[in-house]
Amino acid sequence: MRWRFSTLGSGRPSAKSQYHQGGWQCGFANVGLIMGLWMLATPTWSLVAATDPATPIPVATERSGGNVSLASSLGVRFIPGSSTTLLIDRNGTTFVVDLARQTIQVRASSSATAPGQAIQLASMHSPPQEAPSGAKIFAARCTACHGPEGKGGGAMKTPDFTNPAVQAALPLDAVIKVVREGKPGTAMPAWRESLSDEEIKAVAAFVRSLGQVKKPEGGTSGGEAMQLVKAYEPADDYLFSLPTGRRLDRHGFYLNFTHRFVYTPAFTGPGNLNTMFGLDDFSISSFGLRYGVTDKFYVSAYRSPSLIGRPIELMAAYHFADEHDGNPLNATVRASVDGQSDFRNNFTTNLEMIVSRTVTRHSQLYFVPTLSLQNRELITKPGTLASTQPNLPGINTFSLGAGGVLDIRPTVALVAEVIPTLVNGSELGIHRPAYAFGIQKRVLRHAFTLGFTTSPGTTVSQRAGTRATFVGDPSGDTPSGLFIGFDLMRQIY
């Protein structure tokens, strides 16, 4: 037999646009349902007469009521109030199909089942109608662009709905509006023609739920569940120079770029406007890459310029505790080796633990004890840029960094840190702790931090050093020696 279907004037996107919108499933849902019903009926009933090739099959071409016209042309009648029972009229015989029980009954004729009888039949065979499942709708319609877990990314560069920072900018009403009306300038289509209001609200609620962490096995108490929801999510890998120890995405690729305008203090008097608070001067610009091997283990490579010894730092880190998983704090251990002159001399081995704890859903505290073996004094590279950094005596040091972040807006935070060297600081010419403070802005997968500091170093071994030894000025690490700097973080994918 031949089957033909027309969707002209249905008011929905074309098949080609549905494909790009992840909507092929909607385009063939009704056809698949009818074919499935006939396959279910075939083992029990002989439909030879109904499928006689000589019998013409009408084609629905009306510009309105596309589904109704198509159902009518196929002899299908939907029963009001029922989601599991329908009627099929073929050559004077009415088949009553109960999808829930997977049964088919035959009625004497199409006229034998009046609307009142059909409704009564539906009540006998159909369970109460269930609320639409947002998770099922998301899986069927949204995963092509947003991923099966809602993490987004990929070629479509969609947002990560599991990121609390993203959720903070997505109130439920806004999500419902975007699902219903689409988002101009993007691949996000309007679903108002394909989904009911109840379905749109259900999938929007599911999207909002992706920012909340699932309960650990065995469940949680009400207080513990609230703690999971309130766990703070750092915007960047760094406060300013101190690491936050945040967990990276599995197979996520991150870029870190830092500038430190160390040679000109930001607050040197009226003349500092001539150099834009030091921005119009040489900077120490460092660059690093991080890669999430798993969602708990990542590796990184980092390089600072010749002016500060040209170190290359190689690192491995493991994130073994997270508040989002129901733990009382976040904890990461990191091991790194850095060598100056492009990894040729003055090697230092560093062991760190990064511990953080959410204070409120808008703030977090950080503690970073660090052991550096064979650390070196922080000095400006002598001679020409091409010359090798001199072999300096190695000193074992121990520092205890501390810092905090406080959100003042959903995407804006204040940050501050201090890094005292508790063991052998004076041996490296460190007489006052390095410290910094600034303001941080997050935009989806980006973070930008602008601040003031007394430390020109950003590698693990150098961050506790101060401007005093770097420029040879004993007052260089006092408040008058603060200089400007910034960090830029970008998650590539």
Account of the protein in words:
This protein is α+β, with helices and mostly antiparallel strands. The protein has 13 helices and 17 strands. 20% of the residues lie in helices and 30% in strands. Strand 3 and strand 4 form a beta hairpin. Helix 6 packs across helix 10 and helix 9 crosses helix 10. The longest helix is centred in the first third of the chain and has 13 residues, at 29-41. Residues 1-65, 108-129 and 213-229 have low confidence and may be disordered.
Q: Report the top-level CATH class of the largest domain.
A: Mainly Beta
Distance from N terminus to C terminus (CA atoms, Å) equals 50 Å
- Give the fraction of residues assigned to helices: 10-25%
Can you count the beta strands?
17
Give the averaged pLDDT, no decimals. 77
Structural class: alpha+beta
The CATH topology of the largest domain is: Porin
Q: Report the CATH architecture of the largest domain.
A: Beta Barrel
Spatial order of strands in the largest sheet: 5-6-7-8-9-10-11-12-13-15-16-17
The profile of the biggest β sheet is: 12 strands, antiparallel, barrel
Shape: elongated
Rg, please? 32 Å
- The H/E string reads HHHHEEEEHHHHHHHEEEEEHEEEEEEEHE
> How many independent structural domains?
3
Low-pLDDT sequence parts: 1-65, 108-129, 213-229
Topology:
Elements (H helix, E strand, L loop, with lengths): L14 H6 L3 H4 L1 H13 L24 H8 L2 E3 L6 E6 L2 E6 L4 E5 L7 H11 L8 H8 L1 H4 L17 H5 L3 H10 L15 H13 L12 H9 L22 E8 L23 E9 L4 E7 L8 E10 L8 E10 H4 L1 E16 L2 E13 L19 E15 L2 E8 L1 E3 L10 E10 L2 E8 L13 H5 L11 E9 L2
Antiparallel strand pairs: 1-2, 2-3, 3-4, 5-6, 5-17, 6-7, 7-8, 8-9, 9-10, 10-11, 11-12, 12-13, 12-14, 13-15, 15-16, 16-17
Helix pairs in contact: 6-10, 9-10
